[in-house]
Specification:
Largest sheet: 6 strands, parallel
Number of strands: 12
Oligomer: single chain
Helix content: 40-55%
Number of domains: 2
CATH class of the largest domain: Alpha Beta
Strand content: 5-15%
Order of helices and strands: EHEHEHEHEHEHEHEHHEHEHEHEH
Shape: globular
Number of helices: 13
Low-confidence stretches: 2-6, 203-215
Distance between the termini: 12 Å
Mean pLDDT: 92
CATH topology of the largest domain: Rossmann fold
Structural class: alpha/beta
Length: about 350
């Protein structure tokens, strides 16, 4: 099994839910999608029944499973390689048109399997347009984080607002979006306990940054200064700062909370899976496919009031429909691969 960057809580949510879905089958090894595979890694993979490529927005024009993968290395992997809920990258420059090498990789992967899983219709459309030969094997399953018994069983969406989580995405031009989100929660839910939750923590410049250009250093420090200021802003408005040590801690903490508002997609999906209301602000196109397929709004942070009466049963109905496809894929994995 392969996972993405360790530090991202959302990626950890995906991996955790995949492991739950595949139970009682157990994961034997985990490899990062940010490092090439060694000969020993490939040997370990070939001692298992399959290599699962686990989630996240990895699909770009130059997707290659891991950096620097060669076709020779790909041929050395003898077990099935199965994409599980991978999504389109979402940045236009990364999804202009799939390279010939990536087409070869995707065709080779699909020659060995009956089905692969992808997380939204935008991803499927991108694949079909660029690699039409694999279309019959593509399943739009949604993300594993979507599905939990509370949502699927029909448990009514909670109206509680005692404990509200706000998530932020502190990259690019984030300040106005995140500040106005906190302002709205602070003013609208004065009596609620308010938490600012950080899915990724800015680690500051490395030694390599210090030998880069002066302009580069200035850009890094301006960003760091804004990130620190954002947390100070939250504290001034009565927010507690939550920095989870690991996925488990964040998962359990979110289960104790009542509502989410913010820009982290997988916090949004997790709260909805618990039949708890969540309102997601737009950051980039990675969210658009989910919004289109599942019927939830992408909120304009300047007018949150317009979304508070959204009918979450629309979302539930769409999730139940796509869950049937996910179940088909899980049955295939358990019966034919694992």
């Amino acid at each position: 099994m392969q996972k993405a960057r360790k530090s991202n809580i959302g990626d950890g949510f995906i991996l955790r839910r995949i492991l739950q879905m595949l139970h009682p089958h157990e994961c034997q090894h985990i490899f990062t999608s940010r490092k090439n595979l060694s000969a020993d890694d490939i040997r370990k993979i070939n001692d298992t029944k399959g290599l699962i490529l686990a989630g996240t927005n990895q699909l770009t024009d130059n997707f290659s499973i891991v950096p620097g993968l060669t076709l020779k290395q790909l041929s050395m992997i003898k077990v099935p390689i199965i994409p599980f809920a991978i999504g389109i990258n979402g940045h236009r420059k990364e999804n202009m048109g799939i390279s010939d090498f990536t087409k070869t990789v995707l065709n080779e992967i699909h020659n060995r399997i009956q089905y692969s899983s992808w997380r939204c219709s935008m991803t499927i459309d991108y694949l079909v347009k660029n690699v039409p030969s694999i279309e019959p094997k593509l399943l739009m399953t949604g993300c594993p984080v979507i599905y939990d018994k509370d949502l699927l069983s029909g448990l009514p969406f909670s109206n509680k607002t005692g404990k509200i989580v706000v998530t932020v995405t502190d990259r690019d031009d984030f300040w106005e979006r995140e500040v106005k989100t906190m302002d709205f929660v602070s003013h609208r839910f004065k009596d609620s306990e308010k938490i600012l939750s950080l899915h990724q923590v800015f680690e500051g410049p490395t030694m390599w940054n210090f030998v880069r250009s002066f302009i580069g250093r200035r850009k890094i420090y301006r960003h760091k200064k804004k990130v620190i200021a954002l947390r100070a802003y939250a504290k001034e408005r009565g927010f507690h700062i939550f920095v989870p040590k690991n996925v488990e801690e964040c998962w359990n903490f979110y289960r104790s909370c009542d509502m989410h508002m913010g820009s982290r997609l997988h916090a949004h999906l997790f709260f909805l899976s618990q039949a708890k209301k969540s309102f997601l602000t737009f950051v980039d196109e990675r969210m658009t496919g989910f919004s289109h397929d599942l019927g939830f709004p992408l909120c304009d942070y300047r007018s949150f009031d317009a979304y508070l009466e959204y009918d979450f049963e629309i979302y539930r109905a769409n999730c139940i429909r796509f869950h049937q496809t996910m179940q088909r894929f899980i049955t295939y994995l358990k019966d034919e691969i694992l």
